[in-house]
Amino acid sequence: MASRDEDGPKACAGLLMSGVPIEAAEALCHENALRQVIVLSFDGSTTTVTTFGTGNTDSAIAAEAGNRIKRWLGWPEAMCRTESLKVARLYGRIAELEAQLEKTREG
Q: At a CB cut-off of 8 Å and minimum separation 6, what does 39 contact?
C-alpha cells in the first residue's frame, strides 16, 4: 500500500497531512509501470515523504526506503519507523488467524 510522514510535532500526533497524496504516488506507479515510488516533497515549510509499493513486498521496501531517507535528513527516530499499511494489515490478519487456531486447539 503506502505510507506518508511529515516533519514536525503536528505530524507526530497525526493532525497534519499535506504533501503528495498517496493516491498520486499510486497513480505515478501504475502510469509508469513501476513497482515502487518514493516521493520526497517540500512546500516551503514542511517536508513530506510519501511511499507506494504495488504488492506486499514492494510496499514494505518502499516504506523502509522512506524511513532511510528520513533518517538521512535527521528526522526524529520515532518518525523513521513507518510500516507499510499492506504489511500492517497482514500482521493483523496473522494475529486473528493465530487466535482462531488457539481457540480450535482449546475446544
A: 19, 20, 24, 25, 28, 48, 49, 50, 51
The string of pLDDT tens digits covering residues 34-51 is: 999 999 999 999 899 999
β-pairing, 2-6 vs 36-42, is: unpaired
Which residues in the chain show pLDDT less than 70? 1-17
**What is the reported pTM?**
0.72
Q: Which burial class, exposed, middle or buried, applies to 11 when counting CB atoms under 10 A from its CB (0-12, 13-18, 19+)?
A: buried
Q: Give the integer Cα–Cα distance in Å for 66 and 27.
A: 18
- Domain extent listing, the chain: 2-106
The residue type of 34 is L
Residue 100 cell numbers, joined: 482462531
Q: What is the mean pLDDT of the chain?
A: 85
Under 8 Å between Cβ of 26 and 52:
yes
